[in-house]
Amino acid sequence: MFTPGSKYLIAITGLSAVSFALYMLLVHPSALGAVALIGLLVATSLLTGITLFTRDGHTTEGNTAAATLDTPTPSMWPLVGAAGFALVLVGTITTPIVFIFGIVAILATLVEWTVQAWSERSSADVAYNASIRERILNPIEYPVLAAIGVAVIIFSFSRVMLAINKDAGAIIFIVAASAISLVGLLISVRPQLKKGIVQTIAVLAAVGLVGAGIASMGFGLREDLVVAAEEDHYAHQECGAEKSDHFDKGVSETIAATSGADATIELVDGKLTAHAQGIEGLQDSITVRRSNPSNIIFRNKDAGEFRLSANLGKKQIADGVMEDVVTCTQLISEGAEQWLTLTINKPAVSGEPYTLSVPGLEGQSIVVVVP
């Protein structure tokens, strides 16, 4: 027999189903309204099933157990579950991360609320029921909450460090580390401090850090990071004759081993020469394997800083728009050497050979042959 509560929920579920069907047929199946209606249908269906199963929480007279006489303790998990469902609905039309957070909230609600409801019916002793819940869930809750807390602190601190000047960031890092050390020292030498004081200090520090992180997110990244992100300094090579502030930073001028070299290119007295592996004498061309990495050593034996640049034809980046394919080493000084690895998937176009050259040095190049 249907209970009064289940009748109302069945009616709402039926109305939601009809509304969803009409919306899908008459409006648009992928619109936001369809997502909202399907969410309402799922939620009311779930509540209807729970109500039918529990019969509105009513029991027949004489069958009431002692453990059910006390009023259930208040719980935040229904609110968390509702927020989870809302995040799932929003996530389906926004970003995947919101959807994932919604799923996590729903799963946490199912576990926590189920264990809480079960523990409250274990006995008529409220304290004993609470201890059962703690024994089951605390080993899970504490590590998860600690991980979330650490992640929030790290993220907040990173937002602060990315928003302020890098010189000021070093000072703030030192001050923060010193403050943490001093507080830890104070607690260790004064163990009689009240637990509430220690908790207050920790909470104020965490809230302050999170607040600073939120404020820093509002300010955004500092100017040099914004420029670097827009121009992508560290992802593309700058292969001109001039020195790059970013690509030529932290130059490595030595090679650990040369046994894997397919060829060696040397710049001597303004002339570019090639030594191919297994071929005696100087060469004006080298042959590399198609679709396989070929390692080339560039040695600068001339005064000044130079780089070796590989000109590998053109590629289409849009309709009617071609772009030069160029890769290069960093600028290296006299007596230094550096690897250049080439992976070429097809031979050069007739009349437009692949070449190795030194930017700023005219009339000197090595032809790269791809069979």
Task: Give an overview of the whole structure.
The chain crosses the membrane at residues 6-25, 32-53, 82-111, 142-162, 168-189, 201-221. This is Cytochrome aa3 subunit 4. Keywords: Membrane, Transmembrane, Transmembrane helix. The chain has 371 residues and is α+β, with helices and mostly antiparallel strands. It has a domain at 263-369: Cupredoxins -  blue copper proteins (Immunoglobulin-like), CATH 2.60.40.420. Helices cover 49% and strands 15% of the residues. The protein contains eight helices and nine strands. A five-stranded mixed beta sheet has the order 3-9-8-5-6, with no helix packed on it. It has a four-stranded mixed beta sheet with strand order 2-1-4-7, with no helix packed on it. The protein is elongated, with a radius of gyration of 34 Å. The chain starts with a helix and ends with a strand.
CATH superfamily of one domain: Cupredoxins -  blue copper proteins
CA-based shape:
elongated
Low-confidence stretches: none
CATH topology of one domain: Immunoglobulin-like
How do the helices and strands follow one another from N- to C-terminus? Answer: HHHHHHHHEEEEEEEEE
What's the CATH C level of one domain? Answer: Mainly Beta
Largest pleated sheet:
5 strands, mixed
What would you call the structural class?
A: alpha+beta
Indicate the CATH architecture of one domain.
Answer: Sandwich
What proportion of the residues form beta strands (DSSP E)? Answer: 5-15%
How many strand units?
A: 9
Report mean pLDDT, rounded to a whole number: 82
Number of helices: 8
Radius of gyration of CA atoms, rounded to a whole number: 34 Å
Biggest β-sheet: strands ordered side by side in the sheet: 3-9-8-5-6
Keywords: Membrane, Transmembrane, Transmembrane helix
Organism: Acidimicrobiia bacterium BACL6 MAG-120924-bin43
Protein name: Cytochrome aa3 subunit 4
